[in-house]
Amino acid sequence: MAEKSAQAVELVKENIISMKDISSRTLFESEKTNNHFLQYKEIMNKNRTAFDLLMKEVLSVCNIIDESKRQLVGLQTILPQMEDKTEYALAISQETLAKSEQMVMDSNHLMKEVAQSHEEGLKISSLARKLKELNKEYQI
Q1: pTM for the full model?
Q2: CB atoms near residue 3 (< 10 Å)
Q3: What is the dihedral of CA 45, 47, 52, 57, to 10 degrees?
Q4: How far apart are CA 10 and CA 16, in angstroms?
Q5: Which residue among 3, 7, 43, 96 is least crowded, i.e. fewest CB within 10 A of its CB?
């Protein structure tokens, strides 16, 4: 009976050590993941700033093209040729604007997902710390 008790104690001790090791690894990995999410979030913020600047530039180009169209009305001799080129540039600018707007929407969506992942990472880190503290209480 003493031998079985000793074996049981040894098994419990091994389980506690294993749980402590798992908790430590979980905490390390969750902190590592959290750091990756923070880096990704920073990159996404920089991308969003760049996209916002691009949007302003595209809108500025569209405004310039619209103004150019108005000024070309008086140039009857070259109007057809100039108008075709301007409409082509406008179409490209509008496509660029539409794609930029989609990129901003996608970026916003990704930012929300990153924020959610960050929150989940923080929760996992917190749980891992609590588990590590609980494991300390059961050390032999």
Answers
A1: 0.36
A2: 7
A3: 150
A4: 10
A5: 3
* DSSP 8-state symbol, 78: T
Q: Is 90 helix (H, G, I), strand (E, B) or coil?
A: helix
Cα 81 → chain centroid: 45
Tokens of 33: 């993941």
Task: Assign 140 a pLDDT band (cuts: 50, 70, 90).
Answer: low
pLDDT digits (tens, 9 = 90+) for 16-41: 888 888 888 888 888 888 888 888 88
Which tokens hold the place of 7? 């074996």
End-to-end Cα separation, the chain, in angstroms: 21
- Gyration radius of the chain's alpha carbons: 31
Look at the alpha carbons of 103, 109, 115, 116 in this order and tell me if their dihedral is positive or negative.
Answer: negative
CB 55 within 8 A of CB 94: no
